[in-house]
Structure formats: C-alpha cells, structure tokens
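Our collaborator T.R. sent over the components below with a one-line note: 'Predict the complex.' Nothing else. No constraints on interfaces, no templates requested, no preferences about which chain binds where. So this is a plain run: every listed entity goes in together, and whatever single assembly comes back becomes the starting point for the next discussion.
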Amino acid sequence: MTTATPLLSIRNLVKHFDISGGLLDQLKWRDGRMTRRRTVVKAVNDVSFTVAPGETVSVVGESGCGKSTLARAVMGIYPPTSGEIWFGGERIDSLSPRRMLPYRTRMQMVFQDPYASLNPRMTVRATLEEPVFFHQPNLSRAEVKDRVAEVMRQVGVDPAWADRYPHEFSGGQRQRISIARALVVDPAFIVADEPIAALDVSIQAQILNLLMDAQEERGLTYLFISHDLSVVRHISNRVAVMYLGTLCELAPTEELFSSPRHPYTRALLSAIPRLGRQGFAHLRLSGEVPTPINLPPGCVFHGRCPYAFDPCTREVPRPIVLDNGVALACHGVADGRI
Amino acid sequence: MSDEPLLDVSDLTVSFDFRRRSLAAVSGVSFRLARGERLGIVGESGAGKSVTGFAILNLISKPGRITGGTISFEGRELTALRAEEMRQVRGNRISMIFQDPMMTLNPVLTVGTQMVETIRAHAGVSRRQAEERAVEALRKVYISSPERRLRQYPHEFSGGMRQRIVIAIALLTSPALIIADEPTTALDVTIQAEIMDLLLKLCESERMGLILITHDLAVVSQVTQRIAVMYAGRIVELGETARIVENPSHPYTRGLLAALPQSAARGRRLAQIPGSMPNLTTVPAGCPFSDRCERCESVCRERIPPLTAKDTGCLAACHLLD
Amino acid sequence: MNALKRFKDCYFLYSFLRDPLAVGSLAVLVVLTVAAFAAPLIAPHNPYDPATIDIFDASTPPAWTPEGSEKFLLGTDAQGRDILSTMLYGMRVSLIIGFGATILQAFIGIIVGLSAGYFGRRLDALLMRLADVQLSFSTYMVAIFLGAVFQTAFGMANYETFAVPFLILVLGLAEWPQFARTVRASVMAEKKKEYVEAARVIGLGSRRIMWRHILPNTLTPVMVISTVQVANCIMGEAALSFIGLGMPITRPSLGSLIKAGFEFFLSGQWWITFFPGALLVLLIVAINLFGDWLRDFLNPKLYKG
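Returned assembly:
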C-alpha cells in the first residue's frame, strides 16, 4: 500500500496559532517589570504521514486534537508554521496563490456543517458554477451548465432545483451540494472534514454511500477527518489516531481495530458505543486532556496513560514502524513493555 | 409494592401554533415507565423526542402547548398541576439533564453556591450540612477534591466535568425520574462512555427511572431496558431494547439499524433509507413513514397505523406486520 | 412568475402585512416620497421661479382662515411663496440629502468595515482607530467647521449651487463609522464560516471573496442602519439649516423652511413654521417606525419589548 508514490505527503507538519491579541494585550506586569507574553496554541506538532493514490486515510481523535487544523493546513487554508506538504511530487505549502491555482482543481474539501458551508445568498447554480468558471474561463455557458447538471445528478440532487437557495434544502441535500461543489472541478483528492457529523443517522448512510460511490467512479483519494470511529472503520484503508496535536498511531484499519497498540488508541476504541451490549467496559483514563497552550513535556499522553514511566515524562517518543505497516509513537511499545 | 407505573404517558399530543395553523410536533404518544426502569427515546432531529421530554416536565413554551393526553407521575396528573405545584415536582421528583450543561449551570455563581441553594430549597438543612451533602454528591460523580471544586465557577470545568456536575445537581433531591436529553452529544467518545456509565450505575444504585433521549442507537442500547423509536411525532416502535436491536419490526427501525456502518461489511455500501424525515408541514397522510418506506401499500397512505403488539414481541405501528 | 409567487409566499411579506404599523409607515413613506419627487408636476406653484412669486401675496394665512386665499392652501411665507409647494420641493431636497448622505456613509463604511474585518490585524487597528477619532467629533462640529470654511472660500453666491452636494459630503463623512463598525463586526463573524473557507479552497482571490461572498451576507444589518441613518441625516440637515449652515432659503429644505418661518412664529404667522415642521416629524417618524419593524424582522433574537 505504501510502496506506490504517495499522492499526498505530510512531513513534520507543525501549526501553531498566536492568540495573544494586540500588543497591549500581550504586555503583562510580572516580577516588577513589563514583559511581552504571547499565547500560542500548539494545534499540530510534528505530524508526518503519506496518502497513496486511491486510498482513504482517516484521521481520528477527540475535539481539540488538531485534526481539523491538519485538514486545513493540507488544503492551504492555514499556512503551516513549519514542515512540508507535498502533493503529487511537488511541494505545495509555500506556493504563491497564483502558483497554487492548478492544485485547487486537483484537491478539494468537503466541510462539516452543511448549514455554514454554502453561501446563503447564492443559488445552488451560482455556487456550483463559480469554481468551473473560475478555473476554466474559456468554457461556454452551456458547457458549464451541462457539467453542473451532471455533477448534481451524480450527487443525487435534481438539476431542476439549481435555481434555489441553500435554505430551501434539507441538511442531507445541502451536504450533497457541498460535495458537488468539490467534485465539479474534477479533483483527484478530497479532504472531508467531519462530512457526516452534523447529519441525522439515516442521512449519514446516504452521504457515506455517496462518498464511496464517488471514490469508485472517479478514483478519488480521501483524507477523511472524523471522530466517529465506526464510520472510520467502515470506509478507511488506514487510520491515523491523533491526540493533542501529535500522531499516536497510524495503522491499516483492520490492524488498528483488532489490535490497537498505543494506550490512547486502546482507550479510544474501548469507548466506542456498541450496539446491543449492555453496560460499559471502557478503559478509564485518569485526568483531563491538557490544553494545547501548555503542552506537557515528553509524550503528550503521559499524564493520562496507565503505562507511563520515567522516559515518557521527559522524552518525546520517536515514531517507530512495525513490519505490518503500523506506525506508532510510544516509549512503552518501543521498549516492549506494552 | 404496587404495579402502578412511575410514569404513565397516554395519548400525549403537543401542538405548535404557526401562522394560524396548529401543527402537531408530538401526536398520540403513549408509554409507561416502571420504577427504576430505563427507557430510551430514539429518533432523528425533529422526530419529537425532545418535545416529549419537555412535555412531561410541562416545559413547553409558546407557541407550543399540550393539546391532548394525560401524563400521570406517581399517581398525580401532571398536566392538571398549577405552575407552583409543577415546580415542586420538577426540581424534586423529576430532574432534567440537557445537552448543554450551561442550561442548568449559572455562569456567575460558583458550583458550590448553586448546589447548596438547590439542597436548601428542597430540604430544611443548615448551610454547613448542605455543603457536606454537596461534597458527597460531587464525590458520587467522581469529581476529585470536591471541597476545592465547590468554590470554582462553571467555566473552570471542562465539558465532561460540567455534565457530571449537572448530574450531581440532578441527584441532589433524590428524584424518582431523570430525563436526560442528548446528555453526551456534545462530548467526545471517551467522555461519553464515562458519563453514560456513571448515569447507568447511579440509576441502578439509587433505583431511579431514566428517560434517555438520544439519536444514538448504540448508546441507548447500552443503557436502557426498553426503547421507543419516534418518527415524525409518533412512536413507531416500542419494546425491549435487546429485541429491537436484534430483531426490529418497523421498517423505519430496520432501516436505521441497517444504515449503521457496523451493519455492513467494511467498504461496502450501507443500506440507506431514501429521502429525509418530513417536517411538521409535510407529514404525509396515513403512515408518516409511507413516502420513504420500500414496502408502502395503498393502505399505508390512507390510515395512520396504530401501535399494536407484533409477533416479534414489540409494539410497532405498521399496517404490513399484521 | 415563479419569483413573484415565491415572494407572495415568503415570510417577509406575511410578517409585514401582519404589522399594521409597518404597513402604515411604509405607505406614508411611499406617498411622501412620490409627492416629493413629483413636486414639479403636482405642486400648485413653482417656488424656484421668481417670476411666479408676488411679494404682495406674502404671509397669507392658510386657505381656511378668514384672511386666507384659495390660491394658497397652506398660506404663503414672508416672500410670498406658496407653503405647500415650497414644502414639497423642500422635502425633495431633504430626501435627496438624506438618501445621498446615507449612500455615501454606507459606501465609505462598507469599504472600511470590509477591509478591516477581512484583513484584520494592523489594517483593522488603523481603520478602527480612525473611525473612533471620527466618531469622537460630533457631526455638527464637523459640519459647522467645514460649512464655515466652504462658505467663506466660495462665497454665499456659489454656495447655493453647491449646497446639496456639500451637505451630502459633510453628513456622509461625519457618520460613516456607524456602518464601518457594523460591517466589520459581521464580516468577522462571516469570515469564520465554512463557505468562506470553501471559496478559498476553490482558489478565489481576497477581493472576490470579500465582495461576492462575504459582503452580501453582511447587508442585513446594513439595511437596518440605513433606515435609521436616512432619518438621522434628514434631521441633521434640518438642524444645520436651522442654524444657517444648511440649505439657503432660496433653495429651501424642510429645515430651512422651519428656520425661515421661526422668525415670524411669535408674530402670529405660525403656518410658515408649523406645516414644514409637522411634515418633517411625519417623515422621520415614518422612516423610524419602518426601520424598527425591519430590525425586529431581520433580527428576531432582539427582544421586542
């Protein structure tokens, strides 16, 4: 799976946000003198992995683990603080907007909230035609119209409704339109940020099927961001587990769900609600998730890890790769204690 | 011990006045809850499950109102109570837990103040005694160093901790029934598991009834003994949790369960229910599920099916199962 | 056809028709505006044409009083101009200045607010401090200062021809921060939404995202302030005219009519001031009532007392 040249390659990606506000907010009186203090949210810290063509890689983790930031950094919405993003053999993280343009048609994004991701003042037609006109200005009106109608049919929205506004559609239909907007430029790669989290159960299945169908028909590659582990298990080839901005474990789906290795992965998987099981048998984690402003030293998980020992509090664990394609960062596993 | 149920909701109808029309958000909902029993109300958004929960507590506000049916709790008819009497029931015998803990917690008061006030409003005890009870209550929901925590404000707690405090407050008056409306929807899975586990254990140990309102079938199956599945304001299936999960009767319940990713082989298409749930203005005549049902026949479009016992051992509202 | 049907069904129209105050105020507003702009057609006299004015008609009381003349329904002013006609022409001037100044304010405010909100950081800090400074001077102070300079520089004779654009400029420059602040606040809220990220993922440039995607979604509050500001500008112009820095009496606005008549008010010629004053009040009240309804409709979260 990883032998092919990767379509997307993320190398040592770091994204920090400075939330300290204006200069006046940064100045603090401390120990009798004025100091300038910045508050930095360390959302993503040194994350590396690759996505092969045609593959679905999911990134899972709990709120605040940096998975959405990672998605936006890949799409170039947030410029990375450091690290590299390579797409199809070219480095794209520091391209100018003009040089980035060709990649905008090759990589697209589907968003979480179908009520916020469509411009409420634009008709469906305007929303879907805009990217086509923008990237292929030489196409005729009729060609664009045909293309939009075709994509609408593919996502299961009647093209006759194209002149309506988003508020006239249900959540599921809006998400279809949002997917159509991503598909209309015919991309090879789609980042889907929690595309079904805001939808009702019966609609979730429709959208998941749509995403899987589109993948099959167009040979798409997905980077799928989700907190719903049962969904992730269903659609991914490989799964990356994130905690507090770092990658804990990245493994082929079956491998991860049948034999999770990282203590956090184990705790996370044990907490998935199971249909038809009475009561709970989850692994209890002590304490709370620390804030990404003050990251704990060493392994970010050590404060809550039942197996934490001395090196975990001091050294950041280096990622190790096992022979079955599992990569993980844990001192305990590296030393053979877990 | 008598066989009298803790809660007996019969033919409950809640309507909302909208542009001179009155639309039923909940129609003809009936169910019973025995003492210490845990019932799940499952449905998608707009199915009327939250409205049902609010109606039991008489918390429906304009333009909605209860337009029919009875709600009998511990032998008293709740719809006939005056506002003052209802308040006594509400804080005392029935507690409610919302999705957003900040619906319950006051952001400008410390957790301790809020808890002590609640205790003293319902029991004539001294401040010192009330504080001791509050500490004990926080310990029950596994909050460490409760004495210190009592002096903190809600914003100093994480989302999961806040929801635990809300549970602690809900338990203060030893209610006979807790209504929890999507209590863990906003929380992460690991925290969800802890909160649900906590709620389940407390209900068992205190012998409290629980109505768990949620969209998550898996969660509900882990916590409850019986499930009521709601669709477009009506209960379409009601029965023991294990039976419904293993052998659902109503086409909607079947569709819901089949649509879960767990139900299909990895990477395969999921079974899907076409369309989406009608809103209040577009509910079809006859069976509300008729326009999405694959087996729909002419009778389905004409008459609303009653909730009747089926061979599966559950109650279901479907013409085609007789 | 389809659009018309949709408009008939929409909640906007439904809610509007259910509120008699809103319907009434809009009706008054429409009648007044039409009357003002149709003044050359419907006014019985032309107050701008000195040939039709006879000084012997000066200070005729309204028609229904014993000394009144049927020629002048609401009487005449000290120069012998028909009050009704002068009022209609004057209201036209007032409305032009009110709308013109509001459009100018909105234009400056939207550009400033949009840039500040979208680009943020330094530009935001700079523009918003500028707005603070502008707001800290009162409108009248700016107007009095500029008015005095302008009148001395160009002389009263030229002032007459430039008065309308000048007043639009002064009132427009004085209160643009109202718009800038509101637009900036909604831009900051909108730009966090996913549809803006989607536009960036498509590769659209900043300018296009600002104007085509964000701006249309910030226009709701702009509409609400616009109604309030039209009323404010008409009043502002009236106040400036009243202190002699607004429209000259040869091309009167409602404000200058009130001022002109005020001198004679105590000598019993009440009509010269009273009718323009009443019309001004009616106009302002109608605009504000309609604006209130619009605000309540567009922002249901705002508690209606």
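Summary for T.R.: Residues 28-298 of chain C form a domain with the MetI-like fold fold (CATH 1.10.3720.10).
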